[in-house]
Amino acid sequence: MPTLVMKFGGTSVATLDRIKRAAKKVGVEVAKGYDVIVIVSAMSGKTNELVGWVNETSPLYDAREYDAVVSSGENVTAGLMALTLQEMEVPARSWQGWQVPVQTTSAHASARIEAIPADNIRAKFAAGDRVAVVAGFQGVSPEGRITTLGRGGSDTTAVAFAAAFEAERCDIYTDVDGVYTTDPRISDKARKLDKIAFEEMLELASLGAKVLQTRSVELAMRYKVKLRVLSSFEEQSDEAGTLVCDEEEIMESNVVSGVAYSRDEAKMTLISVADRPGIAAAIFGPLSEAGVNVDMIVQNISEEGRTDMTFSCPTDQVARAEAAMEQAKTNGDINFHDLVADENAAKISVVGIGMRSHAGVAAKMFEALSREGINIKVITTSEIKISVLIDRKYMELAVQALHDAFELEKAA
Amino acid sequence: MPTLVMKFGGTSVATLDRIKRAAKKVGVEVAKGYDVIVIVSAMSGKTNELVGWVNETSPLYDAREYDAVVSSGENVTAGLMALTLQEMEVPARSWQGWQVPVQTTSAHASARIEAIPADNIRAKFAAGDRVAVVAGFQGVSPEGRITTLGRGGSDTTAVAFAAAFEAERCDIYTDVDGVYTTDPRISDKARKLDKIAFEEMLELASLGAKVLQTRSVELAMRYKVKLRVLSSFEEQSDEAGTLVCDEEEIMESNVVSGVAYSRDEAKMTLISVADRPGIAAAIFGPLSEAGVNVDMIVQNISEEGRTDMTFSCPTDQVARAEAAMEQAKTNGDINFHDLVADENAAKISVVGIGMRSHAGVAAKMFEALSREGINIKVITTSEIKISVLIDRKYMELAVQALHDAFELEKAA
Q1: Fewer CB within a 10 Å sphere, N or C end of chain B?
Q2: CA nearest B16 in A: which residue?
């Protein structure tokens, strides 16, 4: 029988009633003839509670014990989901990571899945089970310890199972009904996309559209897993939600697929840095070691052996960045006149695979922002994305202006 | 190094602060040179919450899924305890049942431990670990499913580990500071016993003194595990608590060690049963099938082929007992005139291994009750125990009178 993977996130299994609602959706697919692998998260709030206990007990915790504790939430949901399906007379059982087994690396708290032998679950399907309910987010290390995959890891579990079982599709049920051209809370013209290419989804995921974990999209792209994002709170149909797929499967698409934003960005400028070969490494090495996630980087034209170096990072990392730079100055590794932090920035990006074949997207973007009087602080581009840093107070305005300019409310 | 098993119940690990307090007690034993196996229960209230969810989801639940769900509470405590010990710089790790592995039967929700291979934990001790924190109450079946041992199962886990590792002692930390001659809430003369024999503890446990689970005492008796009950909320010393041990180790003891009671007993009388060979089986077979826990049984002298049959059971099983008897009558399996239920009974027992060699204990007991004008409804005896059923309103009075009569406030 064909296999389907269905993943339910924390809000979709937050209560016994919601677990029942999710189980009904599983029942629909079973009735269609699928063997279904259900991946469940912990009931919402549970993982945070467990993480809180671990942090309070041991701020610099042993990640192996962290994993042993926080993985328990998914086990509870898996058992309850199996029981709920059994009540509906759907033959089902729960599987914990070590029972499958989901083999991972030993990198506790951020382990990577290495293999998912399909034999055990396949044998149960052959023996009459119709659903395997798998606790997401967890696996087992070569040493036999429990591992977890890091936040949002259940998405990755789902895609990995879809790849291992060559599933027809991997449906990610969540609290939104798909991927939108932009955040509907910011623009009421936001339109749900029927399809989006893996590459676009990757850019959107990493830009803060929290629908899917970046790693799960990467994995889906590598193994060509058809990924569908849809709401667990609405009626399901084969056309519901958004399909994340290979760009070849998307016949027509807009040049730009979506406008993403990231609210809490800071623009940091090192004024009058002594310019010399290797200066970039001398600056960004210490920042990386200090755990600062540097995003955009711009170097101004050098004058008389000195230059200004600008970069962006999340606002909550500004203090860390400043400390790292002062330390590097004290060490004599770099020399600069001043470090200016602008903590009132936001990043706006337009994303679309159509950009590859269409010129003029950047010009259109800058023009639209200019018409609204929005000044651009920093610009970066990739093959399918253009990002700008602007004043945070213009963020909503910029998103709306760009959504209008690229006519995203209209389907291709 | 000698091994010690320490078990902490739900109230002893109810909060992070209490886990810390328990961990300090473990640290004391580690400092003395013991390798310590710590058995933990779920934080108090957690197991009830999980059981509630299972019952609400599926009243006639699949016990395999029940076990998968309810075992998760102990995993959380085990991880948190290991982290707490690590914070105290005591090398420790957590062990879930399947990791040890604690091999059990497949009788889910009431599995029995079959074997505990010591190799894995011994190897970690050899490598420098000083504490193995084991999730109590759980194991793994031959099919690789998670099992649980039934309520109070963590006591059994503790004793089984003490036997498997030939531990010097098994310390059960709980919310009382030992075993008393009777319930201190009923008699302010109740005295803590320094030692009690396994056989006496077994009788007391089954009589409702909820200090230790009956099965754990049976197991300790079979494997000669020295069991100590002590409070996790008081200072520890080698003399603290009550030692449950072989009677040979008890030099002097009172004839009677304790007075136990069971509050909610019902006396059921089948009036004028047609007496014939096999009539007892015809009565108690259906009661057993209906899940009625029959305790005391008395058959009156038969007259003209008819007899009265009296038995006791917990009051909350009266309706079930009545239904079973009516059904047996309808089926023609038994014939009786009437079934009279007296739901206002309580059971009082005196227990002591000294009874074996001392006559007159029963007479002294009946005399003491008679002096208080307490009528005895039913009597049963064993080698080391005499139990009577009385009116519930006299329960406290009877306990106090018997405690006085046998001078239990005085040590032997």
Answers
A1: N
A2: A57
